C-alpha cells in the first residue's frame, strides 16, 4: 500500500487474538519511541470493538506510562467495566514486551436530546489558499533532509498552518502560546465511524504541544527540549469525518515545572465544534 491514508486504516485494523485481547502493529521507523497518537488510536479501536457499535465514544482519558518501542507489536487488553442503559465504559491496557506502556478509559454514550450551545469558531482563513506543510518546509529549507522527506511522504494527514511558520527566535518575540492548523486525511478512510474517530485521535496527538513551544522556539528545526506526552483527554461532541477538512485550534494556558498544558478545539468547515482535547507534556531541556 502506498497511500498514507490506507496505511493508517491498516494500522488501526487490530488483530483479535482473544475475546478481549487485540494486537496492533508498530511500524519499524527511525523514531526514539512509538508515536503516542498511534497507541491512543489503536487502544480506542480495541475498546470500540468490544461494544455493540451503536453508541459512539463521547470521551477518553489516557496516560502514557512508558515509551513504546518501534517495530514491536503492542497487545491491548480490554476490561468491560460497564454496559448500562445509555453508557458503556471500557478500560484498555497496552502491553509491549510484558510491560504496560499506556492505559485508556473510554466512555460510549447513546445520543440524547438536551441543551444545545457552543462558542464560535475562530475567524481564520480557509485551507485552500494555505500551503501544505511539506511545501512550506521546502520553501524555507530547499531540498528536505532524507528523514524529513520520508516523514512528509508517509504522513497520513494534509497539514496546513493557519499562520506561516516562524523560523527564528526574533520572529517569536511577543508571540502568544497559540497555534492552529487545518487538517484532513490524505485519502478516503471508508464509512466506519469508529475508524474516523480513531484516525482523529491519532491526529490529535500530532501537534497539540506545539502551542507550548510557540513562544520559545521555532516549531521546525532543532529542538531545545526532549518532549513526551504525559496524558491525553478527548471529548467527542458531534459526528465527523477525518478525511474532510477540520480546524485544530490549540493554546497553552500554562507551562511550568518542566510540564506544559495544552488544550485544543476541533471544528468542521461549518464552524461546529466537533472535539475538545487536553494534554500535558514533559519538556526537559536538552544539554547544550
Give helix % range: 10-25%
Tally of contiguous helical segments: 6
Q: What is the total tally of β strands? A: 12
SSE sequence, one letter per element: HEEHEEEEHHEEHHEEEE
What's the mean pLDDT score? 93
Query: Could you name the ranges where pLDDT drops below 50 across 5 or more consecutive residues?
Result: none
The main pleated sheet reads as: 12 strands, antiparallel
Strand order of the largest sheet: 1-2-4-5-6-3-9-12-11-10-8-7
Distance between the termini: 41 Å
Classify the secondary structure makeup into a structural class.
alpha+beta
Q: Which term fits the overall shape?
A: globular
Structural Rg: 19 Å
Q: What amount of the residues lies in strands?
A: 35-45%
Please tell me about this protein's structure:
It is a single chain. By secondary structure, this protein is an alpha+beta fold. The chain contains 6 helices and 12 strands. It has a 12-stranded antiparallel sheet with strand order 1-2-4-5-6-3-9-12-11-10-8-7. A hairpin with a 2-residue loop joins strand 5 (87-96) and strand 6. Helix 2 (36-49) runs antiparallel to helix 5. The mean pLDDT is 93.
Amino acid at each position: 500500500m502506498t497511500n498514507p491514508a490506507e496505511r493508517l486504516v491498516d494500522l488501526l485494523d487490530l488483530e483479535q487474538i482473544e475475546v478481549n485481547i487485540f494486537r496492533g502493529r508498530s511500524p519499524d521507523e527511525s523514531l526514539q519511541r512509538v508515536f503516542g497518537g498511534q497507541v491512543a488510536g489503536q487502544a480506542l479501536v480495541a475498546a470500540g470493538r468490544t461494544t455493540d457499535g451503536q453508541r459512539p465514544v463521547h470521551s477518553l482519558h489516557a496516560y502514557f506510562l512508558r515509551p513504546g518501542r518501534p517495530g514491536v507489536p503492542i497487545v491491548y487488553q480490554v476490561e468491560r467495566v460497564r454496559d448500562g442503559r445509555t453508557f458503556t465504559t471500557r478500560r484498555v491496557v497496552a502491553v509491549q514486551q510484558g510491560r504496560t506502556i499506556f492505559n485508556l478509559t473510554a466512555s460510549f454514550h447513546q445520543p440524547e436530546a438536551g441543551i444545545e450551545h457552543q462558542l464560535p469558531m475562530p475567524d481564520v482563513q480557509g485551507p485552500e489558499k494555505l500551503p501544505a506543510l511539506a511545501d512550506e518546509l521546502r520553501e524555507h529549507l530547499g531540498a528536505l533532509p532524507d528523514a524529513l522527506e520520508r516523514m512528509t511522504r508517509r504522513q497520513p494527514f494534509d497539514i496546513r498552518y493557519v499562520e506561516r511558520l516562524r523560523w527564528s527566535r526574533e520572529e517569536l518575540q511577543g508571540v502568544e502560546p497559540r497555534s492552529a492548523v487545518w487538517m484532513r486525511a490524505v485519502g478516503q478512510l471508508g464509512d466506519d465511524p469508529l475508524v474516523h474517530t480513531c484516525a482523529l485521535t491519532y491526529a490529535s496527538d500530532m501537534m497539540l504541544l506545539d502551542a507550548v513551544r510557540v513562544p520559545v522556539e521555532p516549531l521546525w528545526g532543532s529542538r531545545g527540549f526532549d518532549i513526551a506526552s504525559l496524558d491525553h483527554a478527548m471529548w467527542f461532541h458531534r459526528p465527523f469525518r477525518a478525511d474532510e477538512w477540520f480546524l485544530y485550534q490549540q493554546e497553552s494556558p500554562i507551562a511550568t515545572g518542566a510540564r506544559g498544558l495544552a488544550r485544543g478545539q476541533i471544528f468542521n468547515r461549518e464552524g461546529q465544534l466537533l472535539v475538545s482535547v487536553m494534554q500535558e507534556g514533559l519538556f526537559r531541556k536538552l544539554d547544550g
